Amino acid sequence: MKIEVDVEQFARDIKAGKGIGGSDGALSFLIKQLTEAALAAEIDSHLAQDLTKNRKNGYSSKTMKSSDGAFELDVPRDRNGSFEPEIVKKNQTTMSDEIEKKILSLYALGNSYSQIAKHIEDIYCVGFSKGAISAVTDKILPMLQEWRVRPLEAVYPFIFLDAIHYKVKEEGHYVSKAFYTVLGVRVDGKKEVLGLYLNESEGAKFWLQVLTDLQHRGVKDILIASVDGLKGFPEAINAIFPDTQVQLCIVHQIRNSLKYVGSNNQKQFAKELKAVYQAFTKEEAALELDKLEEKWGTKYPIVFQSWRRKWENLSVYFQFPQEIRRVIYTTNIIESVHRQFRMLTKTKGAFPNDESLLKLLYMGILNAQQKWTMPVRNWSLTLSQLAIHFNGRLDEALGL
């Protein structure tokens, strides 16, 4: 097939300021001719190798979408129907995966289907319905499922567990569901989201299922788990990983305490509370807690009841050096992941189903993990301290 190029028109377009490629590019008209020329060469090669009395049998036409806009493509046919083109396969309607990649990248940034459709039309002059965009994003689902059941490492020095809540449609009405996030720090010091889980509400019973799943996927040991103050959480963790040290988040505990302190006293109380959680040793912290209770206990007994009840798990971090304390005393590391999720989902009041939520959060995790290229600060020192404190439990993972 002869490729015809209007050189004069091409020159005029370039002079007028048109780019070379793209939907309005000076060479956009060539894509149809180039593709049809390639198909013509393909069918000629196919017929030359066919030992039967096969021959060409006209064309079939279909609309193709490409980065250079939409166009009608004439696909050659053979009489026997044995011709299977490779350049453009029978059910293919997009010239390359460029548009699909653009759709997924826009989706991963939290754009709605309507916003994505407008972006794609503006860039490529190709119209995509919401259904078509949904079909593209559904291609994430097999990857998501594979990711959710992937094998995990045998040992994680740290894990952080927390939940975030979303509205999801179920049986015709919207309900609040808890999205469970498990963030691990591997032996190499790099962060990794270990899994995605959804449940009707947050509770220690479901966390037990989450931890059981981690165990089934290969996790044999967790040195330290940092969690919020959910009732029964430490017991759920130790039911599956009995040797794991469980640290309750100090920041959560402070926030919860201040909710029960009068507004006039909050500033002073918060200042004096620092002497407890910033103490050098557990014994010193216990003495400071006694002093604080002597002053404020009568006025705010519920605050000190909470600290006393949770003291065993609130005070775990005191036994470690500063490098380890800095990592485990708060769940801020996982809350920063949730902040990224909220930025991603802020334009969506609710989700039509579980899959739509999981797809978007999975894309958010992939984006986040691209940035997690460096280990936790001072990781070499932290790891050496962990190896000493948890004698022998890191040996296999470190190849010792």
UniProtKB/TrEMBL annotation:
One Pfam family hit: Transposase_mut
Task: List the keywords (alphabetical).
Answer: DNA recombination, DNA-binding, Transposable element, Transposition
| Function of the protein | Required for the transposition of the insertion element.
The family annotation for this protein states: Belongs to the transposase mutator family.
Q: What is the name attached to this protein's record?
A: Mutator family transposase
Organism field: Sulfurospirillum tamanense
